[in-house]
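Page 37, continued from 36.
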C-alpha cells in the first residue's frame, strides 16, 4: 500500500477532477457565449425572445 507514491495519487485525483470539471467549464463558456449572442437581440427586440 505504501509503495504507491503520493504524486501518483495526486495525478489520479487531478485527472478525475479534470474529467468532471472540463465538461462543466466548457458548458459554462458556451452558455456565457450564447447569452452574449442572444442578449443584444433580446434587448433591442420588441417581443420577448425565448432563451
Amino acid at each position: 500500500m505504501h509503495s504507491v507514491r503520493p504524486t501518483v495519487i495526486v495525478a489520479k485525483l487531478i485527472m478525475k477532477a479534470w474529467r468532471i470539471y472540463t465538461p462543466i467549464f466548457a458548458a459554462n463558456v458556451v452558455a456565457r457565449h450564447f447569452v452574449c449572442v442572444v442578449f443584444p437581440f433580446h434587448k433591442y427586440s420588441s417581443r420577448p425572445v425565448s432563451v
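The chain has one domain: 1-51. Flag for discussion at group meeting. Residues 1-51 form one domain.
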